[in-house]
Specification:
By secondary structure, this protein is α/β, with parallel strands linked by helices. It has 21 helices and eleven strands. The protein has a five-stranded parallel beta sheet with strand order 5-2-1-6-7. The chain has a three-stranded mixed beta sheet with strand order 4-3-9. α4 crosses α6, α6 packs across α7 and α7 runs antiparallel to α8. It is globular. About 50% of the residues are buried.
Length: about 500
């Protein structure tokens, strides 16, 4: 089977949407760090819509900071890939052409730094997941002891971390008198622009006070809220798309039809007209961010840990179980719901129902294991912020504690049948050691893990209502199993 490429575009079926602009005229305006499936289904999707409508010079250079897999998928395809939107109504296929080049940072760090330092690059965006920020989630400061940060401070010309690459490129622009670019975080972190700016400035201060001052004065760090469910692409997905296209596409990305992008409207040197193709440009992202992180992401994490431990591979299977549906409804209405205030004109109840409908999309094979990754980095934003609000007001915390207990049970590394769990988390070894040391004592297990200040801060170990409720859930999970415990409580 021939490979998808620019030369083969004319062979594609008529029901595949094609780029409406001349890709030969496209120039690089954006560098994106972390070009995984989410970026290709979200920010690149919006940029493609701008190019289709207006043309312009907003081509994307994608960069992988770890694996060369995306470059190896897309390079033989001239950067082209298929975006497949799946729902109960069927599939919609679109060929995306906005990505004009892919590089792999570790293969040639100096090349990537030089690329970002070029004047034509107006925006550097990121989807590197929470752990890529090399920060301490509990304090919000740069983790100076992180091995990559330690390396980059000493070797700024050959950085490893996203923070190091950004500071190195900004330093080059500072030295050459080139206008700064916008640094656009698209990760699920509260106030992600402010977090990223703090990491960049704290790092830069270790290099040069003058550099740090120039960055603060000349570089914009808009906060954003991003939303689209994008499961990992499987070999079956690639085979299905191959049958539809008549060509092999190694870069296929699967997504739900829904997408949302809210962006703080502050940019250093221009931007694509994303607001003309569905994105929302606002003065303050925080209200939208809280709604999404606490309702969608918080519920997703709870479903991921409880669902995986109950034997469900996919989120849609979790939503087939009435007890889990009731748990999610209660969490949205009572626990997370009580911590947010919707903006004027925003129908919060319709939004909650829309989330539950999206979770139930059987056409979207979103694995519980995928969502469960990096919980130590996600829980502080998704659950612990709501927890602190509720503790302060003596509000409801039961399902938040259930979620924390399920995560503690999950990171033990052994499921209810005695099978190994592949726990993907920066703290996996420490969490497993604490779980093993306290496998016969749920109370000691909870107190040991909640005592990790880099995840839970210094305050939550002293919140007895939280600790005791979490101990109670973990005790029930160990005695009855997760599925039976949730059925007992929510049916």
């Amino acid at each position: 089977m021939n490979r998808l490429s620019q030369a083969c575009v004319s062979e594609l079926p008529s029901d595949v949407s094609l780029p409406k602009y001349d890709r030969k005229q496209l120039k690089a305006g954006i560098v994106h760090l972390g070009i995984g499936a989410f970026h290709r289904a979200h920010q690149a999707f919006y940029t493609e819509a701008v190019l289709n409508k207006f043309g312009g010079d907003w081509g994307i250079v994608g960069c992988s900071l770890r694996s060369p897999s995306v470059r190896d998928q897309l390079a033989p395809q001239d950067g082209l890939y298929t975006l497949v939107e799946r729902s109960g109504d069927g599939e919609k296929l679109q060929l995306i052409g906005a990505v004009i080049k892919n590089v792999v940072g570790p293969e040639n760090p100096a090349e990537l730094v030089s690329l970002m330092a070029q004047p034509n690059i107006k925006i550097v965006s990121l989807t590197i997941t929470e752990k890529g920020y090399c920060h301490d989630p509990a304090t919000g400061n740069l983790n100076s002891a992180h091995p990559d940060i330690e390396h980059d401070i000493q070797n700024l010309s050959h950085p490893k971390s996203a923070i190091g690459f950004l500071v190195a490129a900004l330093a080059e622009r500072f030295k050459s008198g080139t206008k700064s670019f916008t640094v656009l975080s698209c990760d699920n972190l509260p106030n992600n622009g402010e977090v990223l700016e703090k990491m960049i400035v704290q790092f830069a201060e270790k290099i040069s006070a003058e550099l740090a001052a120039w960055i603060k004065a000349n570089t914009c760090f808009p906060s954003t809220m991003v939303d689209r469910i994008v499961p990992a692409t499987t070999d079956d997905d690639r085979r299905d798309v191959e049958k539809r296209l008549g060509l092999r596409d190694e870069g296929v990305v699967i997504a739900e039809p829904f997408s949302q992008w809210v962006i703080e409207d502050k940019f250093s040197d221009g931007r694509p007209q994303w607001d003309q193709v569905g994105a929302l440009l606002v003065e303050d992202v925080r209200v939208f961010e809280k709604i999404k992180l606490r309702l969608l992401n918080g519920a997703h994490s709870i479903m991921a840990y409880t669902g995986y431990l109950s034997g469900f591979d996919y989120i849609s299977e979790v939503m087939n179980e009435p007890a889990f549906v009731n748990m999610v409804k209660t969490y949205m209405a009572r626990e997370a719901g009580e911590t947010i205030v919707a903006p004027a004109g925003f129908d919060i109840e319709a939004y909650k129902q829309q989330l539950r409908d999206r979770f139930s999309n059987k056409a979207l094979k979103h694995r519980t294991w995928q969502i469960a990754m990096d919980g130590s980095q996600k829980l502080p934003q998704r659950l612990l912020e709501s927890l602190r609000v509720q503790l302060k007001s003596n509000g409801n915390i039961d399902i938040i504690c259930l979620g924390v207990a399920a995560w503690i049970r999950y990171v033990s590394g052994v499921d209810e049948k005695g099978n190994a769990i592949e726990v993907s988390d920066p703290f996996a070894a420490e969490l497993r050691a604490l779980s093993d040391a306290n496998k016969d004592d749920a109370a000691a297990n909870v107190r040991a893990i909640v005592g990790i200040s880099k995840i839970f801060g210094d305050d939550l170990i002293n919140e007895e209502r939280f600790v005791l409720t979490t101990i109670d859930w973990l005790t029930r999970f160990r005695a009855k199993g997760v599925l039976d415990s949730i059925r007992e409580s929510f049916l």
